[in-house]
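A quick word before the example. In earlier lectures we treated sequence and structure as two separate objects. From today on, think of them as two lines of the same record. Here is Transporter small subunit written that way.
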Amino acid sequence: MSELIMGAYILIWPALTLLVLIMICRGVWKDIVAAKKENRELV
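And the structure line, produced from the sequence above:
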């Protein structure tokens, strides 16, 4: 049983990292679209 818990614990980190990366990319994409609508540079 402890091997199953340890395996799940190790495998959850890539999933959490992927979710955070998706959230960051989504936020950057929204900023890019908003900047294009306002006809300004992103930086």
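Notice the following. The chain has a mean pLDDT of 94. We will return to this example when we discuss secondary structure assignment.
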